Amino acid sequence: MLRSEWATSDAFVIRVLQASVGMGLVWVMGFFVISGLCIQMSIRRSLETGTWSFSDYLRARFSRIYPLFLVGIAACLLAEWLNPKPDLFSWSRVTGYFFMLQGFLGYTEHFAPSWSLTNECLYYLVWPLILMACRFHSARAWLSAVTLTLLVTGGLVFWWAANGKPHGPLNESWTVTVRFLIWLVGVGLYDRWAQISQAWKPGRGFNLVLALGALVYLALYTGFWMYSRRVFLLHGLELIAGIGFAILIARLQDATWLREVRWRKLAHTLGIWSYPLYLLHQPVIGLTDILFKPGAVLAGSPVWISGPVFIATPLIACWLLGAPLERRILSWRKSWLEASRSSAR
Prior knowledge:
The chain is mainly α and about 350 residues long. The protein is about 75% helix and about 0% strand. It has helices spanning about 10-20, 25-50, 55-80, 90-100, 100-105, 115-135, 140-160, 170-180, 180-190, 195-200, 205-230, 230-250, 260-290, 305-345.
């Protein structure tokens, strides 16, 4: 929609749509919560079975993230070649991709969503180090991580403000560290899962309160992007979103319909699609944009044509390429990790 002539108007309804459903940042906060929960789950299960190893952990994280990420980089470079965006492109940024530094060094337009992988990889590394330093005492490690995050973020913000609040790596550094708090919400949710399951039994009225709270939050979030955009307020709203997602996850533990086979199969399919769609949708949209350039076959198309095309092409690309490739990579990963553990023994 944002690429159509209709969406370039300054009409109030267009600005509301762009500030609400047009901003995907809040959903990334939900992903951070899920990520923290799943990583802590994996670590705790390894500890309980006596199979924990930091080297195995790093191999597992590397093999999960990096192989398909290289495909995403290739798709990004293809989009840059066929539909160049020179104002945002630089080889230093592309080089930063290979070291997961795009969250600090910046990103090209055709791979913009990849910024969150810098956060993920940093959190993957820091959390188990804190756990080991605290001898795997989860509560102590969680409090240490929160304290360390606040201290580091405070120091970076002070340095950033003292230097005139410049754009660039210094500004990006503290936005990476402060979002660790949201990731830690997921960690805390898993560690307190048993207590929540036993003690928290909200009635049906809670669903209405949760829905109303979500609507109020969406209104605040929309107003922020339309009228404020103060960076500290943004991170406050992000933390509220993280807590909200944690409450939603905890509430869904009593949803018996989620345990039905059909919903489990759907969840599995969506899980297979999630990472390739995340990596490939922006490069594919960049390639699709070529069809709407002046003189191209779909140039000047109305939004009822351009909108469905821009929605369909990433889904088709994921169906034909992304999801099958993800399945092959996951199959290879399972065999590789098992072989690595066997040779270590």
